[in-house]
Specification:
By secondary structure, the chain is of the alpha/beta class. It has helices at residues 3-7, 31-43, 63-77, 92-105, 122-132, 146-149, 155-161, 177-185, 203-208, 223-234, 238-251, 262-274, 291-303; strands at 14-15, 23-25, 28-29, 49-51, 83-86, 109-113, 140-144, 167-172, 194-197, 213-214. The protein has one domain (12-235): TIM Barrel (Alpha-Beta Barrel). The strands form 3 sheets. Strands 4-5-6-7-8-9 form a 6-stranded parallel sheet, covered by helices on one side. A two-stranded parallel ribbon has the order 1-10. The N and C termini lie far apart (50 Å).
Length: 307
C-alpha cells in the first residue's frame, strides 16, 4: 500500500488551531515560545495543529524558516496530535518541495490554498490540483481563503477534486455559510472527508450545517474555550455551546483593535505575549501593537478571564 493510501485515512474532528509562528527577530524562530505554545494548545484539548497558514504568516516567512517551523513542531508534538502543514506558494515546485520536507519530518497532512497573486480560472485550478496531488506524499486538505488568495474553490471544482483519494477535506475561511453548507453536502459522496470552518464566531452554525469543527485562531490563546464549545455542540448540549459561544464573541473583540487584515495576527500575538506564551513580534512588514493597543487587548482578556 502506498504512503498516500495509508495516510489518507486521517480524519479530523474538533478544534485545530492555526498556529502563530513565534519569532524573536526577523527570520528567527522563538523555540521556547513554540514549545510553550504547543504545550498550551495540546493541554487545552485541541485535536490537531495547523502550522504555516494565514495566522502563521507563512507567505511572509523564508523557506528556511518554514522548514525550521515544520521540523521543530513535529519534534515537539511527538505524535501526540496530528500536525497539518500549510504548503501554499505561488510556485508549483516550491509547494511540492515543502510538502516533501513535511513528509520527511513526519508531519501528518498538508493544507493547500488556491495559487495566489496571478488569479487562476476554475479549469486551471482543477488541473493544478490534479497535477500536484500525485506529487505530494501526504494527505491534502484544500483551503478556501478567497479574501486573501482572491480565488475560490468553487463547489463544482471541489466535486471534481473529491475523486482524488489523497484529498481528505476542506478548510473554508470564506465566512459564507451557504457555500460552507454546500461543501458539507459533498460528504455524501466522500463521507470520509473533514470539513472545517475558519471564522470562529460561526462555529455553532457550521456544526448545524454538518461541519466537523473549526480552525480557529483564538484557540492559540484560549484553546479550552473553543474545545468546550465544540464538545458541547457534538454532545447536543446547546445551552453550554451557546454560553461558550457568547464568551468567544467577547474574546473576538481583540480583533477590533488595529487596522487591516493584519490586525488578527497582531491581536493574537499580542494576546499570547500578555499571557506569557511567546513574543508579539510579527513577521515583516508588520509591527507589533503599541502600548495603547496592547492595553485594549489586555482589557478584553481580563473580561473573558484569560488574564
Amino acid at each position: 500500500m502506498s504512503t498516500i493510501a495509508q495516510s489518507s485515512k486521517l480524519s479530523l474532528q474538533g478544534i485545530v488551531p492555526p498556529l502563530v509562528t513565534p519569532l524573536t527577530a526577523r527570520d528567527t524562530l522563538d523555540h521556547e515560545g513554540l514549545e510553550r505554545l504547543l504545550s498550551h494548545v495540546i493541554e487545552g484539548g485541541v485535536s490537531a495543529v495547523f502550522i504555516l497558514g494565514t495566522t502563521g504568516e507563512a507567505p511572509s516567512l523564508s523557506y528556511r524558516l518554514r522548514r525550521e517551523m515544520i521540523a521543530e513542531t513535529v519534534r515537539i508534538v511527538e505524535r501526540r496530535i496530528p500536525v497539518l502543514v500549510g504548503i501554499a506558494d505561488t510556485a508549483f515546485v516550491e509547494t511540492v518541495n515543502l510538502a516533501q520536507y513535511a513528509a520527511d519530518c513526519g508531519a501528518d497532512a498538508t493544507v493547500l490554498t488556491t495559487p495566489y497573486y496571478f488569479p487562476a480560472g476554475q479549469t486551471e485550478l482543477t488541473s493544478y490540483v490534479q497535477n500536484i496531488a500525485p506529487q505530494i506524499p501526504l494527505p491534502i486538505m484544500l483551503y478556501n481563503m478567497p479574501g486573501l488568495t482572491k480565488v475560490w474553490y468553487e463547489i463544482e471544482t471541489l466535486r471534481t477534486l473529491s475523486s482524488i483519494p489523497s484529498i481528505i477535506g476542506v478548510k473554508d475561511s470564506s465566512g459564507d455559510l451557504d457555500y460552507f453548507g454546500q461543501v458539507c453536502q459533498l460528504k455524501l459522496d466522500r463521507p470520509d472527508w473533514t470539513v472545517l470552518l475558519g471564522p470562529e464566531a460561526l462555529l455553532q452554525e457550521a456544526h448545524r450545517l454538518g461541519g466537523d469543527g473549526g480552525v480557529n485562531g483564538g484557540a492559540n490563546v484560549m484553546p479550552e474555550l473553543f474545545v468546550q464549545c465544540y464538545n458541547a455542540l457534538r454532545d447536543g448540549d446547546e445551552a453550554t455551546a451557546t454560553e461558550r459561544r457568547e464568551l468567544i464573541l467577547e474574546f473576538q473583540k481583540i480583533y477590533e483593535v488595529g487596522k487591516y487584515a493584519s490586525r488578527h495576527i497582531k491581536a493574537t500575538k499580542s494576546a499570547l505575549s500578555l499571557i506569557g506564551i511567546c513574543s508579539d513580534l510579527p513577521a515583516d512588514p508588520f509591527h507589533p501593537f503599541l502600548a495603547p493597543q496592547r492595553e485594549r487587548v489586555a482589557e478584553v482578556l481580563r473580561g473573558v478571564g484569560a488574564l
